[in-house]
Amino acid sequence: MSPEYAIHGLYPIKSDVFSFGVILLEIVSGRKNATFDVPNRSLNLLGYAWDTWNGRRCMELMDPSMDASCSVDYILLCIQVGLLCVQESADRPTMSDVVSMFSNERMSLPKPKQPACYTVLNDGLISQDLVTISVVEAR
Length: 139
Known about the structure:
Elements: H1 3-8, H2 15-29, H3 45-54, H4 72-85, H5 95-103
Helix pairs in contact: 2-4
């Protein structure tokens, strides 16, 4: 779910693009964003993907089981498109742009910007509590 919807209840046109980007990065990494954890770091999957992209270590993100089945160039394309999709709403491509990115091999892609929801743990953006207790009291 896009951060605009999760935080403010707003559902912009490009919310579906954000969700697609998260799923794309989950497929490449073989890990879920909701349960992703890097020891001693407060990053979610999006933050980790961003860090590996900036550090030119993208292949660290790739699920080892994909090693022989996909080309490195295609994995890098998926990571770059995924990161473009999870930027702030105004900077995200449209879904038709995303289709073009995958269809046109010669298309020059823009450099991704930092994801809209970069960190999760220890920043208070999302609670770690998995239980909510509601008490009903009569007046």
